[in-house]
Every structure is written in structure tokens, then in C-alpha cells.
Amino acid sequence: MGNRIRVYVDKNKCIGSTTCIYYAAQTFTLDSEGKSTVVNVDGNDSNKIQEAADSCPINAITIVKDE
Ligand code: SF4
């Protein structure tokens, strides 16, 4: 019940495509350098966040599940 997740964006890889924001707009936003950043790990359903991670063209998003 309610497994926690942690979400990381590798800003060295991020190309600012905004694809993750399309899938999980309450979780990711672009920072002032045009790189995705996590604003709220509970912003979207975890399956939406997973979709966002899967959709990232350069796999910059890592999700860690705390069992
Ligand atoms: S989908 Fe990937 S490359 Fe695009 S903004 Fe998000 S983290 Fe960056």
C-alpha cells in the first residue's frame, strides 16, 4: 500500500524536450536552464510518472521504488 517512489532527472542528459511534462505536468517542470526538474514526486499518479520516464527520449529519468 502506498509504496513511495523517488524520481531523479539527470540534468546532464536532459535535452529539455518537455515530453515528461506532457505526461506528468504536476511532477516535472523546466528549470531556468531548460532542464526538467522534479517539483512534486506525488504530483501525478505513479503510473503517469512511469510513462513520463519511459517516454524520455534519452532516458534521463530514473525512478526508484521504496518497497
Ligand atoms: S523527457 Fe527527458 S529529455 Fe525531455 S525534458 Fe523530460 S527529462 Fe528532459
Automatic annotation (TrEMBL):
InterPro entries, alphabetized: Fe-S_cluster_ET
Keywords: Electron transport, Iron, Iron-sulfur, Metal-binding, Transport
PANTHER family, per database record: FERREDOXIN
Protein name: Ferredoxin
Origin species: Neobacillus rhizosphaerae
Taxonomic lineage: Bacteria, Bacillati, Bacillota, Bacilli, Bacillales
